[in-house]
Amino acid sequence: MAKKLQNIKTIKEMIAGTHRSQTKNSVGMYTGKTHQIRKVGDKWEETINGTIYEIEQKEGFRVKKPKNSIAETINSFLNSFPNCKKDCTCTNPTHLDKKMRTLHGMCFDCVVEMEHELKKQGKFEEYQRNRMKANAEGWLKRAQQDVSLLKEAYTKSSEVVQNAEGEVETWHAKMSPEEFEDTVQKQFNEFKEQFLKNIDEKLSIVDKISYNKLKDQNNDKQDNTDS
Fold it and tell me: Considering only CA atoms, which of 86, 96, 100 is closest in space to residue 131?
């Protein structure tokens, strides 16, 4: 009976909030850190073992990555427009912006403005000439790399595993390195020579047009001065 009365007393004290388990003081070590509840999308930085990490709260988990990692730096550079003017407002690149980034390192609007300035300064034709020559040389360089890969594939023998039993078949080279040089490489060298000759002829035409245009402009200025 006394035990039942004691239990009833305990229950009443717990309901009232006066039970000793609810009122006793506890002593612990203060670490100086507080637990912060994060929301989905929150981003912050933490230093762990001397490394600074960028952390983002996701739905039910967190993503942690080192700050300024090499991969992130490379990706940031590849997606940047290093040659754009300082006050460029290209924050949402379009397909044209990305194309111009590959060619000029700047967005489409900055390319248009740059070319407009070159026209005002009378340097646009020279700019066109240099771009045409650079594009041609770049294309030839990539073509030579393809020829080099073709040479490796044509002049080397290889062994290939045919089935699960491990039977091996040898694929013999289609030609010797000397034969490749006398045929494929020779044909490419002849094509390269003719290609560069055609480019020089086109550039000469551009230079001639530029010269005539400049000559006409000077004549117009002279006529206006005389009148």
Answer: 100
